[in-house]
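Our working data are protein records whose layout never changes between entries. Instead of coordinates, the fold is spelled out as a row of discrete tokens. Here is such a record, shown just as it appears in the course material:
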Amino acid sequence: MTDFSAPALRQSSETPARTMSGYVALLLAIAALAVVATFVPQVGDNTPLAVAMVIGGTLVFTFLIIGFYLLQPNQAAVILMFGDYRGTDRTTGLRWTWPWMIKKKVSVRANNIISEKIKVNDLRGNPIEMAAQVVWRVTDTAQALFDVDDYKAFVVVQIEAAVRTIGSRYPYDDFEHQEVTLRGNHDQVGVELRQELIARLTVAGITVDECGFTHLAYAQEIAGAMLRRQQAQAVVAARKTLVEGAVGMVELALEQLSAKDVVHLDDERRAAMVSNLMVVLCGERDTQPVVNTGSLYQ
């Protein structure tokens, strides 16, 4: 039976390169140049030794110059020989390797990227807009160069995919505060987003130091309706708190009146007093006092 499955990707791994300090090679290049300068005046006399020393010194000087390269802090050089990976040099300063070696520099500094705003459907199917800020850096230069085609473009695509995954995993908001939401649990969701990104970018030798959402809102087509819903729920919540407080105050007033034997009320007058107190405490406008000049039952 023929196996048509795709072959597994060969994972690269960073190894130290065998290079040397450029300052030693620089001294040799200066010495070669000095030899050339010494024997150049003697070339006019057709002295074989002078010609040989000038040609040899020039070749040595050229050979050494081609192998120089510079590395700044948090910068690495991937060394290739005829397409074969020979290691990564992370030592800063002036460096030297064989001239036939190809040097590809890779920055291992922290990079900051803010993704584009994308539209995502949350757990309840509501369209929302999301954007994320991610701080990433290369940890394995061999994987970054050889396991993906363009590691910077790979990061951008994976950030968008991770944002979509996290956005569809939770609801945007929950006014009953019974579940994890994108808006109410920003830190927790941010940690999960970082874990998702690290898992996606490991194949490229990249890690994520920090990430978070820079934009999180309902999409324009439902923003107005959701705003009215939020306002209505806020009003209901405020009314509920107000009624609970008013009931407690009325209950306390009746208990104090009965305990101190201030006045005796039958059930009908007690109900009327409760109704009046609730109107006073729960009304949106200030009440106007009315002085009763008659008896309690008039």
Remarks:
- The domain at 111-218 is CATH 3.30.479.30 (Tetrahydropterin Synthase; Chain A).
- The longest strand covers residues 206-218.
- Residues 220-259 form the longest helix (40 residues).
